[in-house]
Amino acid sequence: MADTTPAPKPRGRLAHWWDGDFAYQFRRSPVAMISFTVVMLMVLAAIFAPLIAPYDPFDPASLNLMNGFSSPMEPNAFTGETFWLGTDDQGRDVFSTILYGLRISLFVGAAAVGFAMVLGITLGLVAAYVGGWVETIIMRIADVQLTFPAILVAMLIFGVAKGITPVEYRDQMAIWVLIVAIGLSDWVQFARVVRGATLVEKNKEYVQAARLIGRGSGAIMLRHILPNVLSPVLVIATISLALAIIAEATLSFLGVGAPPTQPSLGTLIRIGQGFLFSGEWWILLFPACTLLALALAVNLLGDWLRDALNPKLR
Amino acid sequence: MSEAVLSIRNLTVEIPTRGGILRPVDQINYDINRGEILGIVGESGAGKSMAGNAVIGLLNRPAKITGGEIWLNGTRIDQLEGEDMRRLRGKHIGMVFQDPLTSLNPLLRIGDQLTETMLEHLDISRDEARKRAAAALDEVGIPAAAQRLDSYPHEFSGGMRQRVVIALALCAEPSLVIADEPTTALDVSVQAQIIALLKRLCRDRGTAVMLITHDMGVIAETADRVAVMYAGRLAELGNVRDVVTHPEHPYTDGLMGSTPLASKGLKRLRQIPGSMPRLTAMPEGCAFHPRCEFAQDICRAEPRPKLNGGRSACHFPIQQPAEETA
């Protein structure tokens, strides 16, 4: 028995991963591949917006009011310029505003989920590991927060924050306040899932063994428990990303989110809906379709991820 | 007593509940000497694991030690708290758990788990720890040990994982290893290998072992001395050979009678009538008397008999004809 087992062949990590079950599931699922491609294209478009966008919609000097209300793909009646997706009332190129809007939407969504994740994971982990009254307090706060719709919580936080920031900083702060507001309305899910998984993991013998060899509580939580509870977190994070993007769009649509000087997709939709019934449909439709495609793709990706990470559902 | 690695004196563990205070471990006493293997047997719920957990200080709330003393290498450890307890128990006690599937962290490489333990307690460099980890794996019989350091637990079979767990328990050079049902989750052919391995390594290093099991066969094969627990109390404590061949306590006798041993030949196995009393309904006097065929009035009336340095806690130990002359 001793010498017959061949040593495992050293292989590249990437090759190993590509051969793995996870990558195989991905390659077999057209939905996953398409939605992943859509998300990646949008992320790249958002990152490289200044390079891709044909116009800078926020440079008043480059705007020509005569270009206002150009139809998509048609030369403007006055200037003869053609805009792929048309222009809005002030002559801003809709395609360019969408690219910049996507940037803000994605950034706010990702940062809000990141914030919610850090907060939720920390609280959930500590609650489950420490137990006792610490757990009771944290989880009761979570329960109370769950009784309010997330969007109301976000509006409340946004409103309070807006009230206490000086007027001259409001527009600059708006994005950050938005991130905190959405993040604070979303941490509960992470905390609950992490707490549940931690309660299971903390009684496993490897955690007992780590306690026995004398690792501190912090080291045990970070090194032993956290990695073992992360896969459900990954699924929730993806689905939360779609929800956060939609929450941001909703807030902006209601006029309490991203200011018109830094319009997100939601702001664009709000501006666009004023022109819908006067015939300038493109100002509304294109940002709305972008938002729809983004949210749908992220959501489908999350669904697939949930199935792929949970073999029992297959 | 100077030789004893672990001394337990009148250890009592209690769990406060609505229905009163339960006493899963009730005033037990034993020593384990250097290089000695003490087997602890008993039915489920007899308090075997509870006593083991009390020693390593990992009792789950609300269970707690309410009486007695635990001495490890001359230091009293039952009252240590926080940092002192962590350092001490980690350095001096190794633990082999029942289920090798859950006693290794599934997301950490074997090598990392071994080095983590060593770096915590031995004053050595990371490279040195890795070298020692490979040596430790080699010693427990893992082939190609150096390469296997980078494997994850799922790449090992159950028996090999238990070997890794043993390496893990011994790598910080503890003076006491507590093995809580180390072979229960393994199949029979692997059980023998694991037991032999544990026995050999501990004998070589002079490590004391507390072997908790309900398998009389494993005890008979491995242990030097055996402690029989019943309802949280010690029923009998003595050399394995004596206890197995001439049990004094009627409960031990019943246990032996219900264990198939090749040496006894093909006889119908006896069984002990009834079942162990629940902790909430402990009988007066000797806890075993409702099931005991020799029970007399004194067993019901007198407070429970204690071991008091003798071999068995019984008013009427079974006299073996061969022993009477000795």
Quickly list its features:
heterodimer, A: 314 residues, mainly alpha, globular, B: 326 residues, alpha/beta, Rossmann fold, six-stranded mixed beta sheet, four-stranded antiparallel beta sheet, 22% strand, disordered C terminus
CATH class of chain B: Alpha Beta
The pLDDT mean of chain B sits at 83
Quote the distance from N terminus to C terminus of chain B: 26 Å
**pLDDT averaged over residues of chain A:** 85
Overall morphology of chain B: globular
**String of helices and strands of chain A:** HHHHHHHHHHHHH
The CATH architecture of chain A would be Orthogonal Bundle
Look at the structure and give the CATH class of chain A.
Answer: Mainly Alpha
> What gross morphology of chain A would you assign?
globular
Explained architecture:
The complex is a heterodimer of chains A (314) and B (326). Chain A is mostly helical. Chain A has a single domain, classed as MetI-like fold (Orthogonal Bundle). Helix content of chain A is 69%, strand content 0%. Chain A has helices at residues 13-19, 21-28, 30-47, 49-52, 94-130, 132-146, 150-164, 170-184, 187-201, 205-212, 217-253, 265-273, 282-309. In chain A, helix 6 (132-146) packs antiparallel against helix 9 (187-201). Chain B has 326 residues and is of the alpha/beta class. Chain B is built from twelve helices and ten strands. Chain B has helices spanning 48-56, 82-92, 110-121, 126-139, 145-148, 158-170, 188-205, 216-222, 240-245, 250-257, 297-301, 321-324, and strands at residues 4-17, 20-33, 37-41, 64-72, 75-76, 93-96, 176-180, 208-212, 225-230, 233-239. A six-stranded mixed β-sheet of chain B has the order 6-7-8-3-9-10, sandwiched between helices. A four-stranded antiparallel β-sheet of chain B has the order 2-1-4-5. In chain B, helix 3 packs across helix 4 (126-139), helix 4 (126-139) crosses helix 6 (158-170) and helix 6 packs parallel to helix 7. The radius of gyration of chain B is 21 Å and the shape is globular. Chain B starts with a strand and ends with a helix. The chains are: A mainly alpha (314), B alpha/beta (326). Chain A binds chain B through residues 1-5, 7-8, 131, 204-206, 208-216, 223-224, 227-228, and chain B through 56, 58, 61, 86-87, 89-91, 93, 95, 97-99, 102-108, 116-117, 120-121, 141, 143-144, 147, 151, 155, 168, 172.
